[in-house]
Design a protein that fits this description.
There is one protein chain. Helix content is 57%, strand content 0%. It is built from two helices and no strands. The radius of gyration is 21 Å and the shape is elongated. Helix 1 crosses helix 2. By secondary structure, the protein is mainly alpha-helical. The protein has one domain (20-89).
Length: 93
């Protein structure tokens, strides 16, 4: 008689039961990936050397500096949106 394998279906652990590190990574990793995509899309059409501070003087940074700073800005904004969504979807205490 062939052996039967029983697969146990479990409910996923509630979000509050997950370690803080895991909850942070669930927000930060997708935000990191999307910040990279957004960075590519923006700088496919915008030249970093043509940027100006509020229309006045040109930004005196290297291309790499502009790419790095904007990436971290994009990452922070997307992560903040994910964190707010996570906060709003969590059950009330």
């Amino acid at each position: 008689m062939p052996s039967q394998r029983i697969v146990e279906l479990r409910e996923p652990a509630p979000a509050a039961a997950r370690p803080r590190r895991e909850r942070a990574l669930l927000i930060l990793w997708p935000a990191f990936l999307m910040a990279g995509v957004l960075e590519m899309l923006v700088f496919a059409v915008v030249d970093p050397m043509s940027l100006h501070w509020f229309g006045a003087e040109p930004i005196a940074w290297s291309r790499s500096a502009v790419y790095s700073v904007t990436f971290f800005i994009f990452w922070g904004v997307i992560a903040l949106a994910g964190a707010i969504t996570r906060l709003l979807e969590s059950p009330a205490a």
